[in-house]
User: What shape does this take?
Amino acid sequence: MAILSPYNRFAPMAQHNLFAALRAAFPKDLDSTAVETESGLRYSWRDLDRATAMVANLLSSLDLPAGSRIAAHTEKSVEAMVLYLATLRAGYVYLPLNTAYQSAEVEYFIGNAEPAVVVCASRNFGWVSKIAFKAGTQYVFTLDEDRTGSLLERAAMQSDVHAVAQSQANDLAAIVYTSGTTGRSKGAMLSHGNLLSNAKVLKTYWGWKKGDVLIHALPIFHVHGLFVGIHGALLNGSKMVWLSKFDPKTVLAHMAHATVFMGVPTLYVRLLAEPGLTREATRNMRLFIAGSAPLLLETFKEWTARTGHTILERYGMSETVMLTSNPYTADARYQQQSERRGATVGFPLPGVELRVAGHDDVALPVGEIGGIQVRGPNVFAGYWRMPEKTAEEFTADGFFKTGDMGQVDARGYVHIVGRSKDLIISGGYNVYPAEIESYINDMPGVAESALVGVPHPDFGEVGVALVIAKPGAQVQAATIVATLKKQLANFKTPKHCELVPELPRNAMGKVQKNLLRAQYQSLFV
Ligand code: MLC
Ligand code: AMP
Assistant: This one.
């Protein structure tokens, strides 16, 4: 029987730090390859361990208050992933920012989150540091794709041994900004417990196994590439083929020695345009996973016809990580259904309670359409410093209102049929119409505008802006687009802009966006 020393009378606190769990899953052979880049660089598991220790030691040496946010506005690189893992390791809170965001967007996020540390590309240091120091940030480091920058220079002076910070399951691990269901962008607060519970469920549900190799081709500013991809591979001790940017030919070339691929629907559409996508080219692959936006049934079917593989579609959100998934193998809860069905997002993941509810937040009968609401260990703690907004998005019995409309069919499959939130999902990126409209409305000569999403063969959905000019004003659509390009992330720029004499309105005077969507729906298809 173990005897506790009088100096150690309390049982050690359970460790809930997400990095500790990922580190524990590293394979025994630390010198084997953990990450391989498109340029042939190889990082061993030992490299990942040492590099995260050094960056974590650097962060720890800064004496930051507990709960400090570490913001990253950096291009995708293995070192950018190391920064994420080191932030977890040191017990701080990671704040990823898409590098497409321009100054007004970055100013909002940094002003709202007040990070203690900001890491950015050296070419952006001038304007990013100005914003950060104004918001009270203490340290701004640089990190570039070619493994240079002050972050790594400073980390190189640190020890490569670091004891992982002790974390509770409820401690914050990351804040992910999302347009949410209404209003300005909100920071979804995700805990170590949220992220780890979801990663563990997916490891089993998707049948991760020894020898799996993930092709990682998604950006790491958002939930899909940052959490689903990285946690999936690391928790399985699996190698990643790390591509800084999605390129269909490069992805195809790596399929011969990989087994798992994850992508937003646009990636599948672009791969299908490659004549090299064949059964032979995908022979070694075990699993193709799609999500972040609706996968068209025709893409799903064409993929099966071309490759013999059935895409597994799943559904998630920044606020909840993954919620539902088509089955990898038979799911005992649903009469051993093992079929991956196109145009559905499968079943609620183990531990996730999902209901389709009416206005009274009560579950509707099978087949009826209502708002999708969810509850579970993966659901976030709330929006950063927005208690009222958080309260609005939860029901009295603790379900989170996703803002997606759906139905559950008789076999238990969840179907997403639309959104109650005014949101456009373009190539897997969220575009919040109210934000774009406010920028257009502020332009000289503009009286009013409306942005609607219409079908697009490549991006799935894109924004179309309809603008009314003030009487007598000379406003050009091309000028509006060019001005937006300078002000906002490029993916938010409408793909079509048109001056119109009026907008259709209902009796209350509200713009009828459904009529506009119907009018412009064949513009690109
Ligand atoms: C680029 N452009 C886009 C765009 N991406 N426009 C609309 N929507 C997008 N998603 C713009 C470019 O700025 C350029 O404009 C023009 O379109 C053509 O660019 P491109 O070269 O074809 O784009 P590319 O760089 O190849 O990027 C396309 C892409 C990328 C699909 C690879 O958008 C991407 O990686 N998307 C994935 C997003 C993602 O990871 N989402 C997960 C969110 S998490 P111009 O005018 O400059 O020529 C989430 C939760 C969950 O949703 O469930 O997972
Ligand atoms: P985000 O706020 O970027 O996390 O985006 C989350 C939103 O993406 C969800 O609320 C859905 O509207 C959408 N989404 C994610 N996966 C799917 C999917 N498989 N099918 C349809 N929509 C999806």
Residues 119 and 498 are 39 Å apart (CA to CA). Residues 346-420 form a domain with the Luciferase; domain 3 fold (CATH 2.30.38.10). The radius of gyration is 23 Å.
